[in-house]
Amino acid sequence: MSATVLPTSLVDNPRLDRWIHFNADRTVRIATGKVEIGQGVVTALGQIAAEELDVPLERVAVLSGDTDRGPDEMYTTSSLSIEMSGGSIRLVCAEVRAKALDRAALRLNCSPDELSVVDGRFLQNGAATGQDYWSVAAELDLSQPATGSVPPKKADAYKIVGHSVPRRDLPAKVSGAAFVHDVLPPDVLHARTLRQPNPGASLVSLDEAAIRRAARGDLQIVREASFVAFVSPIEGVAQAAAAAAPAHAIWDGQRVLTPAQQEAAWLKGQPAEERRLGAPPPTDPPKNPVKITVSRPYVAHASMGPSCALAEFRDGHLTVRSHGQGMHPLRKNLAMALGLPIEAITATHVQGPGCYGHNGADDAALDAALVAIRLPGRWVRLQWRREEEFAFEPVGPAMLVTLHVDLDERGRPADWTTEIWSATHVQRPGSGSGFLLATEALPNPPPEVQPTDPTEARGGGGTRNAVPLYDVPAHRILHHLVQRAPVRTSALRGLGALPNVYAIESLIDELAARAGEDPVAYRLSILSEPRARRLVERVAELAGWNSRGPGRDGKGLGMAFARYKNRAAYAAVAAAVTVEESVRVDRVWCVADAGLVVNPDGARNQLEGGIIQALSWTLKEQVRFDDHGIASIDWDGYPILRFSEVPEIHAELVDGAGHPSLGVGECSVGPTAAAVGNAVALSLIHI
Alpha helix locations (H) across 177-234? Predict the structure, then answer.
């Protein structure tokens, strides 16, 4: 295997010792730049390493998100952790295993072919040798770059990969000690902020005396330009100050929003970068045109806990603990924002209560760092308030999607145009598309950026999953990338996949109805991809599709299918609903093909989590505006799906061991929303 086919993560971090180290306590430390945000990646990556090294899983310690000791794998996004980091770890461990066996063979004066590995110990023709990884580790030169020349194990030899094991991150989460919020260093200072209401707003005056009276305790006020933080050794004092502060602050340059701007329809006609992808425009007018339009509102991350970070500035070195999606990018972005050398910053990951994309975690890290630099020698724990989280984190963009389809004489799509209006799906700092939030409140704020969107090579942003996987002779995308959204938008789980899949799968059901055909049979008639067909047939079988009925009494059964990004995991979903005064989802079935699945139980967790979040987005969630900005700033204003509303879910993985691992974290989201929509449409026919 040549270096040109190495995973990107291994190309960018070629040294073996950046990935693996044999500890003195007879464990193996495996390092990854990907971080645990609820997807079970720490467990799965440990399984991959244990498998390739032939050591027990309990001897593998996974170091995740550490800028001093681990590889730079950018962000944990786009369902790429197993493919990229897992693929890199698999090759690294295979190569290090071979190096260790070569070294042991020299010691034993035998051929490496005579040696095998059992529980980390080296056997010669099945007999103990007294040698193991730890006895030869000091003689291995792991400063060399990985070559990828040693083939990993065949899947049929796996003993650990492909088997369910308990997730390592869950016990601490269940016991309440896993999150960054729970980290309390000695003599820690607690901090809260007064947020700049919008970029360009400047703080004219602040009644500090009134705020101190409201705080009623030991309080320091840190202020630089329009950035303000309230700091106290008592958390309640800092919290009270921040809650009181908005009433005692006068701003110049505040924006005014209108409720109309919260709707996706507002995007139409706004200044936009016009992008055209795919087939050229049709030369003939449509003979049998069909059009459908769907929309998605702005959506919040709505993590169960608000953003939080810890920072300490001591002897010129800044240490930050954050629950962001990438510690190496965070370190770079902090260095730029603070004017520090990058080597003067260490960023380490601590788990947080939900992420789902670019939320406020990185912004909170800069907030904490700004305070820590002004109060050196003490740990600063800065936590956003719930109102702050909803009002100032980046939100998932509203989208308007119109499909224009021309049908042939059989009622099948002959020509297909997907037209999309959306703001950008990525304003991550340091990428040229965005900045850390507090930089806009500091002196000399950064210039306004030109919005961009993830390229199609990266799966697209607003265009993600806009190309149907069905057999369509000609397809094109018209993408209106709106240049100035009313609020800050960025990455949210699945990016544009949910509204695009919803539109496609809703249209397929409508086309089946026009043709007088069953929706499953219609799909199969234009779906030649074998792995896709298998899932559609299986989910129909599980849901009892053949006996679904016409949807009387407000009952409906719908299904939908997609392959995430058209190159990650496949998922087919069926949903049974009851429509009365509101929509109740009674049961959901999901069948997914993720190729080689490392930890089946963990993968099913991801499918189920995606289903639940998709139900919440589809049935409940919408960011709302008023004159001052985002108005949905608490759980009453932004309701999410309750535990009592979660339906029975059956999630099944088909055997994909003959195929490479495919990212599963986002594949069930779009099909779930579309299946519910199709089920509701069926239920309304007879109401």
Answer: 208-215
CA 226, CA 228: separation in Å to the nearest integer?
6
Residue 479, token pair as written in the block? 């993408």
Tell me the one-letter amino acid at 555: K
Residue 657 confidence class, pLDDT cut points 50, 70, 90? confident
CA 568 to chain centre: 14
Q: What is the pLDDT of residues 239-280, one digit of tens each?
A: 999 999 999 999 999 999 999 999 999 999 999 999 999 999
Whether 461 contacts 396, CB under 8 Å: no
Tracing tokens 């397809």 back to the chain, one arrives at: 475
Query: What is the CATH code for 180-253+307-383?
Result: 3.30.365.10
Report the SS3 class of residue 608. Answer: helix
DSSP state, 359?
Answer: -
Alpha carbons 107 and 210: distance in angstroms, whole number: 76
- Give 539-586 pLDDT, tens digit per residue: 999 999 998 887 778 899 999 999 999 999 999 999 999 999 999 999
CB 327 within 8 A of CB 287: no
* CATH number belonging to the domain at 399-684, selected among 3.40.50.150, 3.30.365.10, 3.40.50.2000, 3.30.930.10: 3.30.365.10
Tokens 């593998």: give the residue: 60
* Domain locations along the chain: 3-169, 180-253+307-383, 399-684
**Interstrand relation of 475-482 and 413-422 (parallel, antiparallel or unpaired):** parallel
Fold match between 3-169 and 399-684? yes
Please spell the DSSP secondary structure of 415-442, one letter per residue.
EEEEEEEE--S---BTTTSB--GGGGTS
- Which amino acid is present at 478? L
Burial of 551 (0-12, 13-18, 19+ CB in 10 A): buried
CATH of domain 3-169: 3.30.365.10
